[in-house]
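Hi team,

Filling in the usual template for the complex we talked about on Friday. All components are listed, including any nucleic acid strands or ligand strings, so the model treats them as one assembly.

SUBMITTER: L.P.
PURPOSE: interface mapping
COMPONENTS: two
RESIDUES: 537
SEQUENCES:
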Amino acid sequence: MSTVSAVYNPTVARLTYKALLGRRRALILFALPVLLILISVAVRLLTGADDSTASSILGGFALATMVPLIGVVAGTGAIGPEIDDGSIVYLLAKPLKRPSIIFTKLVVAIGVSVVFSAVPTIVAGFILNGNSQQMAFAFGAAAAAASVAYSAVFLLLGVITRQAVVFGLVYALVWESLIGSLVPGARTLSVQQWALALAQKIAGDGAGVSSDVGLPMAVVLLVGVTVAGTWFAGQKLRTLVLAGEE
Amino acid sequence: MTTLSIDHVSRWFGNVVAVNDITMTIGPGVTGLLGPNGAGKSTLINMMGGFLAPSTGSVTLDGAVIWRNEQVYRQIGIVPEREAMYDFLTAREFVIANAELHGLANPGEAARKALATVEMEYAQDRKVATYSKGMRQRVKMASALVHEPDVLLLDEPFNGMDPRQRLQLMDLLRQMGADGRTVLFSSHILEEVEQLASHIEVVVAGRHAASGDFRKIRRLMTDRPHRYRTVQRRPGAGLGADRGRVDGGHRAGLAGEGAAHPGDRLRRLHRAAAARRPRARHPALHGLAVG
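RESULT (copied from the run log):
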C-alpha cells in the first residue's frame, strides 16, 4: 500500500462524497451559492459596479455567512450522520488506520466547501465589480482558507458530539457575527478574521478590507487549528464508542 | 483455529455495570450468546468487535488485544444489530466498497461471491434503501463475509427476519461453523439458539450464568422443562396417560420410543423429573426470562 493511499482512502472518499451530496440537507450547499450569485447579479444590475458594495456583499454575506454555513454542512456532514446512525461501523471494522479515515473525510469536506463557497465567491466578485481591486480573488482566497479551517473544526465537532450542527451554527452565526461585533477581543478568535487577513493582503488598498489579526498570526492560527483539529478528531475516532442500545 | 478469549472482563457505564467479571472462550463452531434484553450481550459483542474498551479485563483474538487494533478486522467479520447502512448505494456497490476497504485484490469478484452466498444476486443492483429488513440483514452478512473472515460476530441477526430467511441464515451459519470458523451470535430467544448453536453461553444481568451445550443449559432452566413423548405400542399399557404430571405441576412425559415396559417408563419419568432440578451456577438463572 503506498504512502498516499495509507492516509487517503479513495473508497472512504467516494462514500463520503456520495453521502454529502446525496442527503437532503445538502440542498443548502446548492442554495447558498445560488443566492449569492442572484444577489450579485441583482446588485450589479441595480447599482452598477461599486467597490464598497462588492466588499460588503463579499465580506458580509459570502465570507461571514455563506462560508461558515457551508463549512458546517460539509464538515459535520462528512462524518456526523454516519456516527449517528451507526453506519460508520462499516468503516471502522476494517484494517484502516482511523486517522486516515479522518484525513480522507477532511479532504472531501474541504473539496466540497471550496467548490460550494470559494468558487461562487470568486464568481460573485467578478459579477459585482469585475475583480476590481483584486477583490474577487482576495475574497475567494479568504473563503478557501476559511473552508479548510472550518472543515477541520466542524469535522471534529461531528466526531465528538451528536449536536455538531447546533454547535456549528452557534459558532458560525453567534460567535463569529454577534459576539465578534460586540466584544472586540472575540474577533481575534474567529476563523473569519484570520481569513480576512489573507483577503487584506491580496486586495488593493482601495478595497476597504481589514482584519483584526495580522497575516503571520492569521496563517499560524489557520494552520494550527486545522492540524490540531484533524489530529484530535483522529484520536477521538480511535476510541469512538459504538455502544449498543443497552 | 481462531479463538476469542474474554478474561475477567467488566464494563460499566457510569454507575451501571453492563458486564460483570465475565470469562469465556469462544472457539470454532457456532456459539450462541443467550440472555434477556439488557443482559449485556451487545456490550460483550461490542467489546469482541473492538468498538468498546473493557473497563477491566482483556478481550483477545488468538492472544492479540482487540481494542484499538484495526488489524484484527482482517480476521473478524461483523454483522451489527443496527439497521443503518449506506442506503444510497446498491447492494453490489456496498459490498464492493467493503471489499475495497479490506484491501482485497479483486473486490468485484469477492463481492459477487459474497452476494451469491447470501442469495442476494437477484436484487443486488437495487438501492439498499428499498430493501426489507431481511434483505438488509443478508447484505450485512455479505459485507461481513466478503473477506472470508475466520471469526463472524452477529448481534441479534434473526431480528425481523421471516421464517424462511431465518432458516436460510441458520443454514449459512451452520455451514460456516462446520467449515471451522468461529461464529458467535447473540439472541434473546431460546429456540433460535437451540436450533443453531452447538455451544451456548448464557448471560444474565451482566453475569456469566452458564456455559455448555443447549441440553445442559436447558436442564438448568426451571421454566422450560423437557417434554418427553411416549409411544404406546399397546393401548392401556402405559401410565394411564401420555403425559404424567410430576414435580409441582410441570409437565413431563416418558422418554424414547423404545420404552416398552411400564417399569422402564416410570424410571425414566423419575429421571426426567430429577433432571429438571435447577443446578444453576448462578442464582439469577432462576429468573431467566427468555423466549
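MY TAKE: The CA atoms of residues 149 and 226 of chain A lie 5 Å apart. Chain A is about 75% helix and 0% strand.

Thanks, L.
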